[in-house]
Amino acid sequence: MNLNIKIYNRVKAVLTNFPKTRESDTVLMATLWNEDITTGIVQPTSAVGLLQTLAAGALTNWESATRVRRKIMEEHPELRGLSYVMRKSKAKVVKKQIKTWPSNIK
């Protein structure tokens, strides 16, 4: 996988410093974009300016950041959120239910 190291390091730092970002891509992106806006060259002063900045590609790409987040969580289980643990525990229950289904149901 070809990862952007700069985005990888930024996302890892955000996941480490802001645990709420582990639960939601929306919160992760809001945090990254806030960082982009406050430290970047382009600093929009309105909602329209923000949308223009986003359309111009001056903000961190959503797909790249979330792809990197998934990779980081794969490599660093301690950065996974509570929703990950809950989803995995539910999966175990569903697997048991599927195994006990009658064989005549197709």
Give the rounded overall mean pLDDT. 87
N-to-C span: 38 Å
Cα radius of gyration in angstroms: 19 Å
Structural class: mainly alpha
Strand content: under 5%
Number of domains: 1
User: Sheet with the most strands?
Assistant: none
Number of strands: 0
Task: Determine the fraction of residues in helical runs and give it as a percent range.
Answer: 55-70%
Tally of alpha and pi helices: 5
- Principal-axes geometry comes out as elongated
Residue runs with pLDDT of under 50 for 5 or more positions? none
Structure overview:
The protein has 106 residues and is mostly helical. The chain has one domain (5-80). It contains five helices and no strands. It has helices spanning 5-17, 25-39, 47-55, 62-75, 82-99. Helix 1 crosses helix 4 (62-75). The mean pLDDT is 87.
How do the helices and strands line up, and which of them pair or pack?
Blueprint (H helix, E strand, L loop, with lengths): L4 H13 L7 H15 L7 H9 L6 H14 L6 H18 L7
Helix pairs in contact: 1-4
Offer a few descriptive terms:
mainly alpha, 106 residues, 0% strand
Give a concise summary.
This protein is mostly helical and 106 residues long.
